[in-house]
Amino acid sequence: MGRLDGKVALITGVASGIGRAAAALFAAEGATVFGVDRNEVAGQSLAETLQAKGQSFHYFTADLSTEAACATAIDRCCATFGRLDILYNNAGISVIEPFTRTDADTLERIMAVNFKSVFYLCQQAIPRMQQQGGGAVINTASELAIVAQPLYAAYCASKGAVLSLTRALALEYAKDNIRINALCPGPIDTPMLQGEFDQAADPTQAKAEGIATMPIGRLGTPAEIAQVALFLASDAPALMHGAALVVDGGKTIL
What we know:
8 helices; about 45% helix; about 15% strand; about 250 residues
């Protein structure tokens, strides 16, 4: 018996990194996974891999930066599988640049992907969960929703908004047996983080400096974050509503 047997989970950002690891883990634990990403090639590759193992995974291509795309993704998931038990809002992007150079287009893009997609997907999913009698929502915030870092002003703002939204929704829908919590990863060895290192003059040094901020002496792995997401998606944390679960190797307590 898997910990998610009989549950339908929609996970965003499944093409790589944490989303890919979570999709594989949730499927292995018995969930029917509806994976969403804008990278069709990588998404279809994941679908072929998981389906070859006999696991239930359906891939849907979408850029979730618009309200219409979010509504379509939820509608398609529910039309395909008849219900939605778990919503894992994992998709996100980062921008590294001085605050005064962040233009309107950049700010709109990062807020649309990191925050507005979470808002709209929750808005579409929660009524379905109410009708079913409950559900679980996992919103990916970040350690940078709690602490700050230079050159990440727009990213920090978007993730802080996700955390505040999570707490507000958790209070509003706790009575409906819907658990809504935030997952706040620290530096995780993903393509997105490597892309940040690659922007530095010396990517190797940048990575070494990033690792130096970690008390455990290494970056986290996508699989480690996926395990925490699995816990939040399972029935185990029945009393967790509006929590900000920081998973950062001790970085934020330095």
